[in-house]
Amino acid sequence: MHTLDRLPDDILVLVLSALSVQDVLALRSTCRYLYAVSYSPSIWLSLLSHLSLLPLPTTLPSPGQETLERLAISALRLSANWSSPSPVPTECTLIKGARHIDKLELLGEGRWLLALTDGERLSLYDLGSPFPASASSSSTDADAADQQEQEQEPMRGGLSRIFRQPKRVAEYTRSTGRGWHCGFESYLEGEELFVLLSWRNQTDLLRISLSPPPPRRQSQPQRQQFDLLQSFERIRESAPTPTAINGRLLVYPWHSGLLRVVDYRTWEEGSVVTWNPSAGGGVAEGWSREDPLALHLLPQHILVLKPTSLQLFPLPALQISPRLPSHPSASGIGESPRPGPVWHLPFRVDAAVFSRPRLSAKTQEPLSLLMRDVDSWTLVHYRLRPTTTTTTFARPSTSSSPTDTPAPAPAPYHLPPTLITELPELAFAQRDRHNTFALGASGSRGLVQGLSVLRGYTAPWLAAAERELGRPRRRGASPETGTESRRSAQPTSDPALNEILHNTPLRIMEGGNGLSVDEPSGRIAVGEADGDVWVFGFAVGA
Amino acid sequence: MSITLISKEGAQFLVSKPVADRIGVVRDCAYGADFWLGYAVATDDSMGITLANVTSSILSKILVWCEHYKDMEPLVDGDSNMEFPEWDMAYIGHDMNQILFVLEAADYLHIPGLLLLACKGIADVLDGRNPRGICDLLGIVMDFSHRQEVDMDKENGYWRWFLHPT
């Protein structure tokens, strides 16, 4: 008899690479030879490449087979879980001790949580790696990473797998009293995290290193510190004011429609004149002038979303003390940047969130924009196509030639953007300011929080990819004895907002403020009105 | 110009050059020597190329594929998200035994496109089966010890739960 297990292993690797993840797992438990072959890393590498339509983490913790396998399985699990009618969280973290939440943000593929609470305290939590290097069986799981935690937490394996203990890594408290309307923007580059923290009266620029903690010898835990790099004068009195930060620059709105750009490594400054509609025309009722709703800082450009327009400007040349244009409309001064494209929105927006495309050397990810249309009360998802697939993300060489005006960099994104979806189901979120959004890094998954509901959003391209993965490949074959009917129950509906907290203790929420989602790990962070922070994971937990 | 291929049983197949070009081994054999010797070895019809590992039935099946792809470029490389044409799927069929023979022959003869197609065919046959079903289908003897089998069931159940929570 000619069977599969007689094949030489190099062909078998080819065969297994063409299978689906579920079938490789099934094949693994047939005989010893196939079991051994199925652990080959090249198989899992190619299986992962088949899943490339799903949002996967860009950086792997360690490129071993275990990691690849776990990654593939958790990506599949997440995609099946997230858009199912009742998602089951596979891990849960509760952080107590605050009275109210100002902002939450998951960083570094879901590993870190940055929380601003009570208007005065910024805390950084280590949630544990969502993709642990050790994998399948419980014995290897226990002894590798969480050994110290296991000693401290004598819980049963199953429970500690689901309920995680957060570790507070660092904390920064403002000494000069409580500030309202505070917020922050963060930028993670490698191991270095920069936070631009805006209080009511001042703005602090903080830095912390996220290097893995050294092996603990003493029992007392080592606490890291936020370094205060600089404090500024207050940015704006009324807030929340959008700010933006990257590895070199920080941007915040200034007076009369100007954006101030500061290079915080050299303290050079510049400003961007944004476009404002002329008085009366185009200005929505209730807005005296158009304040930016959201900023997105690109390597050489800045995207500004105002209530009725989306604007793309090249960053100005920076100098130590810039001569500011006396009138914002006056152009022709060497300092004022060339006008970028302005796209007038066909509706008015009052809340919006940009995705944070990951910068990789090879390709530029599209940028997503989730907005709330005030007039028709719909949720609108737009996507900006990158102009080129290969873009060098070089730092703007502004200081090299201060006399010369550098050649304008090509616009990184096409304007106008493409309309992806328009969801008219925002009725559950009443016209109330407790209505927050979150969008993952590539814009494939998002969250919308209403007054008492939290719904997950899946972008159409991801939903299509999931449908493709869940579709049975065999056509016209009659169901046989060995076939399982597991693929029948697949979500086939159009991408929509589905309830995400069905199976959690957090059923009814008063409108909290913080909301964050991380795509590859499937972690979401939700802030409750009473100050509790919940982090749920929907992929494979450790 | 045509080339004679001789199967394991000694049966002769007369194929034209574009058809034979699809078979990597034959291409190298017949024209690769051109570069070194200044003349091709197998240009003469009377000389055949013996393919000692391929039976007549499988060789004739493979030649059908080569005939079909003598003018087109087959899908050689690519991820399995890519769909094969209908003709390919009908050609490879659902007969596991035959697919395995084609797979081995395609590997021996260096036909990457057919190799990929055979992998796809196997994937389609195995799609959605549980381990017991695969063993029944392929006649694989489970050679795990009892202990290993228990572990395997546990692990498999673990993953199955993770992949399909319901």
UniProtKB/TrEMBL annotation, chain A:
PROSITE patterns: FBOX. Residues 390-404 have a biased composition (Low complexity). Residues 134-160, 390-413, 468-497 are annotated as: Disordered. Residues 143-152 have a biased composition (Acidic residues). It holds the Pfam family F-box-like. Residues 1-47 form the F-box domain. This is F-box domain-containing protein. It comes from Calocera viscosa (strain TUFC12733).
From TrEMBL, chain B:
Signal peptide: none annotated. Residues 44-70 form the SKP1 component POZ domain. Pathway: Protein modification; protein ubiquitination. It comes from the Eukaryota. One of its GO terms (biological process) is ubiquitin-dependent protein catabolic process. The keyword Lyase does not apply. The keyword ATP-binding does not apply. Essential component of the SCF (SKP1-CUL1-F-box protein) E3 ubiquitin ligase complexes, which mediate the ubiquitination and subsequent proteasomal degradation of target proteins. Belongs to the SKP1 family. Component of the SCF (SKP1-CUL1-F-box protein) E3 ubiquitin ligase complexes. This is E3 ubiquitin ligase complex SCF subunit.
